[in-house]
Amino acid sequence: MALSPAEDLDDEGMLDPLTVGRRIRQLRTDRGMTLDALAAELGRAPSQVSVIENGKRELKLGELQKLARILGVTLDELLSPEPPSKRAALEIALERVQRGPLYASLGLPAVPARKTLSDEAIQTILGLHDELRRLHEERAATPEEARRANVELRAEQRKKGNHFEELETIARDLLEAVGHRGGPLSQRVAADLATHLGFTLHYVGDLPETTRSVTDHANGRIYLPVRQATGGDPRSALLQALAAHVLGKQEPRDYADLLRQRVETNYLAGALLIPEASAVTFLKAAKDARELSVEDLRDAFAVTYETAAHRFTNLATEHLGIPVHFLKVHASGAISKAYENDGALFPTDVLGAVEGQIVCRYWSARQVFAVEDRFSPYHQYTDKPTGTYWCTSSIQGTASGSFSVSVGTPFAHVKWFRGRDTVRRQTSRCPDPTCCRQPDSALAARWSDKAWPSARLNSSLLAAMPSGTFTGVDLTEVYEFLDAHAPE
C-alpha cells in the first residue's frame, strides 16, 4: 500500500531528504538520464540537483511534484520510505553515520559513497561504527543512563520554555495559605510554611554528610544544618524539603526519577522564593524601561544570583517573550548546569549531554574569570556559528570552587537588557576544534615534545556510582541520626 506524503516522515516529523534524494538518483539512472538532463528539465543547475540527490536539501511540495512528473512516477512512489535498493540503503546508512556526533568526535575524514566503494567496505565501516558505539556505551553504563535521562528532561524543559504552570499554581496556593502578599519570602514565612504543613524545624550540628536536610514524617520534624554551605541560602534547604513533601516524592526508582525530582523540587522552591505574580510585575516594568537585569531580580527578592538566574529562565519566555540560555560553569570550563531555548549551541557528548563538557574559552562564561572586578556584572557579545548572543555573567564562590553563572539571549532581544551597551565582544568558532581547543601550529611545534602536564583528575572519574541508592545518601547514617534525635 502506497504511503501519502504526510506519512513519509522521519522520527522528527519531517520528510527524510536522504531517502528521497537516493530515490531520485535511482529513478534518474534507471531511465538513463544524466544529471545535466534532469537539471535542465527541472530548471536548476546540475550542482543543485546533486545536492538534492545527496540528501543535503529538503524539497518543497511543488518541487517534489515536478520531479515526480519528470521521472514518470507518482508522488507516493517518489516519497516511499523504503530505500530504492540494497546499495542505496547502505549509502544512506553510511551518510547518517558520518553526520552523527559519534563519527564527528573521531576527527576522521568523510568517506564518499562512490561507485568504487564496495558494499563490503561500507558494511565494514558500519560494523566498526556500531561496535564503537557499543563499547562507548558499555564503558560507563550508569553515567550514560544519567546523561540520557538528563538530555530527555532538558528537551522537555525546552519545549515548555522552562515554565511549569502546575508548580506555579502549587506555589501560589501555599503562599496564600500563610498570608504572603508578594515580594521577598522572609525566613519567618518559610518557617510558617513548615508549620502549615505540619512540621517543626530542628537545627543540628551532626546532620549526615551526604544530606542537605532530613525529613522525619513519623514525628513531623525537619532537620537542617546549623551551619550553611558557603554562598548558600538558609531558606533553600528547608523549601526543597517542603517541596518534596508537597509533591509526594519517594525514594527515586532510577536516575530519570531522581533528576525529575530534583528539577521539580528546585523549581517549586524557586517559585516560593520568587513568587510568579510579583516577579512578573517587576520584570515587565523592567522590560518596559529596557532595564532587565538578573542582579535587580536578585536584590528585589533577596536571593542568590543563581536562584535569580534560574527563576528568570522560568519566566522570561512565558511572560516576556524572550528566549534565553543559562549556564553554570566551573572555573575549569566544565559545564555544571545548562538550559537553552534560544538556539545557543552548547558543546555535547555523543549522547547529546552537555554536563561536563568544556565551554569555549571565548564565551562570557569563561571570559568572566579573567576579570578582576568580581562585584560588577560582566556583559559580553559573542559571535557564534549560530548567530550573535549577548550574555551577563557573575562568579559565585562555593565549597566546590568558583562557578560562573550566565544568562544570555540572541542579539534581537538584547534591547530589553541593561548592559547592552557593552563594548566587550568575542568570536567563537566552536565546535570547530581550531577555535580554542587546539594550540596554533607554531605553539604546538615549540612545546609538543618538551612538556608533560600532570592532570588534576576529578575524584569521580574512575569511581562507580554508590551502590544501594541512586542518590548516594548513606541510609545507615541517616537512620542512626533519626534514632538519635527522635523524641522519646
TrEMBL record:
One of its GO terms (molecular function) is DNA binding. InterPro entries: Cro/C1-type_HTH, Lambda_DNA-bd_dom_sf, TransReg_Diox_bact_type. Residues 24-78 form the HTH cro/C1-type domain. The keyword Cell inner membrane does not apply. Pfam families: HTH_3. One of its GO terms (cellular component) is cytosol. Keywords: DNA-binding. PROSITE patterns: HTH_CROC1 (PS50943). The keyword Transport does not apply. PANTHER family: HTH-TYPE TRANSCRIPTIONAL REGULATOR, METHYLPHOSPHONATE SYNTHASE. This is DNA-binding protein. The lineage of its organism: Bacteria, Bacillati, Actinomycetota, Actinomycetes, Micrococcales.
